[in-house]
């Protein structure tokens, strides 16, 4: 299992071996190579100091040519001296320190995982609360690692939750992982916990991870913010439809249904609270204890909503506000009937 900066180029055909040897000679390098039973060779080298390690893949097979790039530490290379079908993996040169060998000499792309730039939030609570939340996560929601079934992905996800989302130091998180680690198994169900060094390595790597819990927290926060902005836009349209004199009492439930046709689905209580918090002064109760808005020009409200929909093809002219959602074209005709301006 190679570990950076050591890496191995596995050429599976005689033609590719000649290509690699020629390239190395052009760079003034004597290859450190091992002949393989397939007729190919393993070329051992050290990554140059300026080669980026962040996001480097463990193993990169090249689909265009029979050649594999093995960077480790989660990939395997058959050691020199091993035998398969009676044929030895035989060193072809004197065994010395591997020379500096740049993978980019043989391939120009694909060595690194695509960078994860998703925004995320972290747990903002005090440390004591974060520790409690992390323990509950490990007991109730954390995926268990199953060796031989992408167990390393489960470990990475759990570690990122503790270190990157809950902001717990790796040494503290290591102790917290003990009960979870004891429940990890192999594919047959037998206990298969991670070693202390493996856990520490995963926890250290999680410092720069993108925690899924944090990504979901960000998405929930953004959805809540967008909803608040949409409610604020609709509440302003409702207040514009209020008149000083005249108008009628319109039940809040009717307004709620109207907004629902425009894609804003709220409970009557949520809409009433939004109107109250916005300072809407005319929310009253009818004799039947139905919450209503007095002085409402319902037709003006419908016109305002339709105009906001039509402006700029469904985009608000005020670019600082989000657009209203798309609406069924038949709604215009429906609203004309409802407001008494059209015939069914």
Q: Top keywords for this entry?
A:
single chain; three-stranded antiparallel sheet; alpha+beta
Alpha plus pi helix count: 11
Strand fraction equals 5-15%
User: On the 0-100 scale, what is the average pLDDT?
Assistant: 83
Termini separation (Å)? 76 Å
Q: Give the class from helix and strand content and strand pairing.
A: alpha+beta
What is the 3D form? elongated
Residue stretches low in confidence (pLDDT < 50, at least 5 long) are 314-332
Strand tally is: 13
Helix proportion of residues, in percent?
A: 25-40%
Radius of gyration: 32 Å
Order of helices and strands: EHEEEEEEEHEHHHEHHEHHEEHH
Across the major sheet, the strand order is 4-5-1-3-2-8
Question: What features would you describe in this structure?
Answer:
The chain is α+β, with helices and mostly antiparallel strands and about 350 residues long. It contains eleven helices and 13 strands. The chain has helices at about 15-25, 125-140, 150-165, 170-175, 180, 195-205, 210-240, 250-260, 270-275, 300-310, 330-340; strands at about 5-10, 35, 40-45, 60, 65-70, 85, 85-90, 90, 145, 185, 250, 285, 290-295. The strands form four sheets. It has a six-stranded antiparallel beta sheet. It has a three-stranded antiparallel beta sheet with strand order 11-13-12. Strands 6-7 form a two-stranded antiparallel sheet. It is elongated and about 100 Å long. It comes from Geothrix limicola. This is DNA primase/polymerase bifunctional N-terminal domain-containing protein.
